[in-house]
Design a protein that fits this description.
The chain contains 17 helices and 26 strands. By secondary structure, the chain is α/β, with parallel strands linked by helices.
């Protein structure tokens, strides 16, 4: 029987029955609703993306674990950010003030213990993309108790947590981090991205072993991993858990299914709300649906087991990094000799790499284009995640941080999801002297500027107003856009049960904003930028503010 057919049968069983978690021996009745198009919530979601090691240091006792040192090249050592730091900022209301719906952290699984030195200077796995053990947290980031607390606190604040998933590759080989067996990985050729094969069946760079995700051949656990688990006193437990998983699913013991099982365990144990998938285009697209099916069922199993901790009825969410995917291609990604639809393979959304270029156009050009595409036939059941800055994009929208207010306005008011990269809201510098490559994008969060620099505080306030307006009105990211007036620029965004009017570059001081047919006479509205409450009179509203931005909608 094919793997795909087995999966279908398993899904049907889960829809009406129950299954046993690898975490427990109890039977839990799980009712999994049929998959539906992406919700307006996720279409409009604001996702805050941070490097776990570079955001906030909440526990200085875990800054250097596993023998790591501070002798890396510039911005290439661990610098102390951790899970407790993120939790602290959630408790302080930092993310709620920004209107953040979900936090995406770089991977927190246990990383290689050593460092590499391959042309960029000594580099440690501070970024999280060099995995060693997918069943444990890296002690530099914290403990499982810290992780459980983070998710609990996030959910209490209405915020979801997205786990960053890496199945494409292991960490590099170092003197203290051996290579995984040849039955698990390939080490050549290196990708040259000329076609499908040279993008998928290859290693991203030298010394980054590529997992054999295309293989169905059974493999034994890597000896180094077995030795590690034996020393930690959990080898028998992990082997039994794997046996249970493979017995239940009928999957072959092929490399990708080990990783799917390990990620499933994280969801089942902690109630993780979704995944950001790393290097998705470098792996066969079909495996992401296999991952989605297992982890979606685990999500509903967690909900059934923890009813008091369930945030809401939102489904499990997956957004993919298909590097250089553009909204212009609608549903497909073109490898040159093959087109692949990742949306048909488990993803609700893909990161949109073309936004930073599109944002150089006018407001109307940008907003009208994105509304047209996202409400068109191809993508109306999906979405994209837009960004202006990221951790590995060397050509951000505003590398010198000279267009910070414009970047915020365009990102946060554009149709589609919005990804804030940590420090966008505080003008954290992106050009750091002495760095090589991506490291320049990964400095520690500039908290001191938010405390001492008036310009950073003003910028943060701008992001907060836009974010809170976006969070209060799903029509901002999920609605249909229409320009109402060219000068000053006024537009509406509508859904069947929500509508907003926005004015940009309007007069400072006293101003009259027409509401056209969007709101009825006498309707009480709020300007989310100034905080003023107004009433529609004679087809418009009157405001007197010191701002040239107006964000109008009904108040919750």
């Amino acid at each position: 029987m094919s793997i795909k057919k087995q999966l279908v049968i398993f899904s049907l069983i889960c829809l009406s029955g129950c299954f046993r978690s690898e975490e427990t021996t109890e039977n839990i009745v799980v009712r999994i609703p049929p998959e539906a198009p992406i919700s307006n919530f996720w279409k409009n979601a604001t996702v805050y993306f941070l490097l776990t090691d570079r955001f906030y240091n909440g526990d200085k006792t875990n800054d250097l674990k596993l023998g790591r040192q501070t002798n890396g090249a510039v911005l290439r050592s661990f610098e102390g950010g951790d899970l407790k730091g993120v939790t602290l900022k959630i408790k302080e209301g930092y993310f709620n003030n920004l209107g953040v719906d979900a936090i995406w952290m770089t991977p927190v699984i246990e990383q290689i213990h050593g460092s590499t030195d391959e042309g960029t200077g000594k580099t440690y796995a501070y970024h999280g993309y060099w995995g060693k053990d997918w069943t444990r947290l890296d002690p530099n980031f914290g403990t499982e108790a810290d992780f459980a607390e983070l998710i609990k606190v996030a959910h209490e604040h209405g915020i979801r947590i997205l786990f960053d998933v890496v199945i494409n590759h292991t960490g590099p080989v170092t003197p203290i981090d051996p290579q995984w067996p040849n039955s698990w990985v390939i080490t050549d050729p290196t990708c040259d991205y000329k076609d499908y094969a040279s993008t998928v069946s290859c290693t991203l760079v030298d010394n980054l072993p590529d997992i054999k995700t295309d293989s169905d051949a059974p493999v034994e656990l890597p000896p180094a991993l077995k030795k590690k688990w034996l020393e930690e006193g959990r080898l028998d437990q992990e082997q039994k858990s794997l046996d249970d998983f493979f017995t239940r699913t009928g999957y072959p013991r092929a490399p990708r299914f080990y990783f799917i099982k390990w990620f499933r365990d994280w969801v089942r144990k902690y109630g993780i709300d979704g995944f950001r998938i790393d290097t998705a285009k470098h792996t066969e697209a079909e495996i992401w649906q296999e991952l989605k099916d297992e982890c979606r069922s685990a999500f509903y199993e967690w909900k059934a087991a923890n009813p008091s901790l369930v945030l809401d009825e939102e489904d499990f969410y997956m957004v993919g990094e298909v590097y250089n995917y553009s909204i212009d291609t609608r549903k497909v990604f073109d490898y040159g000799d093959r087109q692949v639809d990742f949306f048909a393979n488990g993803f609700e959304s893909l990161i949109n790499f073309s936004f930073k270029a599109d944002a150089n156009g006018s407001y109307e050009e940008l907003f009208n284009k994105y509304s047209t595409v996202l409400n068109g036939e191809d993508l109306r059941d999906f979405s994209v995640l837009n960004y202006v800055t990221s951790h590995d994009d060397g050509t951000p929208f505003d590398s010198q941080r000279t267009r910070t207010f414009e970047a915020a306005t365009k990102l946060m008011l554009c149709p589609g999801g919005a990804q804030i990269y940590y420090g966008d809201e505080s003008a954290r510098p992106l050009v750091i002297e002495g760095t090589v490559g991506d490291a320049t994008l990964r400095s520690f969060m500039n908290w001191e500027d938010l405390e001492t620099q008036a310009s950073s505080k003003k910028l943060l306030g701008h992001w907060q107003k836009l974010g809170q307006f976006r969070q209060a009105h799903l029509s901002v990211g999920a609605g249909v856009h229409e320009q109402l007036q060219a000068s000053p620029y006024i537009f509406k965004r509508t859904l069947p049960n929500d509508a907003i009017i926005v004015g940009l570059d309007v007069n400072m001081g006293q101003k009259t904003i027409p509401v056209f047919d969007v709101f009825e006479e006498g309707t009480s509205l709020k300007d989310y930028y100034s905080g003023q409450t107004v009433t529609v009179k004679d087809g418009g509203i009157q405001l007197e503010t010191a701002f040239d931005v107006v964000l109008i909608g009904k108040e919750d």
